[in-house]
Amino acid sequence: MGEKQLGGARRRRSRAEVDGLVTEYEASGLNRQEFCAKHGLALATLDRYRKRRQQRLESASADSRFIRVELSGAKQAASHGSSDLIVLLSNARRIEVKRGFDADLLVQLVRVLEQV
Length: 116
Fold this sequence. Notes:
The protein is mainly alpha-helical. The protein has 2 domains: 5-64, Arc Repressor Mutant, subunit A (Orthogonal Bundle), CATH 1.10.10; 74-115, no CATH class. It contains 5 helices and 4 strands; from the N terminus they run ββααααββα. The two termini are 39 Å apart. 3% of the residues are buried.
C-alpha cells in the first residue's frame, strides 16, 4: 500500500485509510521501519498518522467527559418541583436530588449510568 500516484501527484489518504494503516501497524508486530518498508511509507508519515490519531482519540475522550450544563432561573426551577438539583440526560432519564441526599448513593448511581 505505497503512495498512490495520480498524474505524478501524491493522493492524500482519507482518515479511514490513515486509521486503517495505524491499526494495521499496531496489530502487525513489526517495528516501524519494517512496517514502513513493507508499505512504502516514510517513518515520519507513520509517526504523524499515529500522533494525529492519538490526538483525535484524546479529544473525543475529553469531549465525552464534559457536557453542556444550563442553569435555570428560580421560576423554571420552581415549575419542576421541589428538587434542589435536576439532571436531564440526553436519553430522557432524569435525576432529581434533594437537600440531604446520600452522596455515596449518588456516586454509585453515576458509576452505573457511565457504564450504560
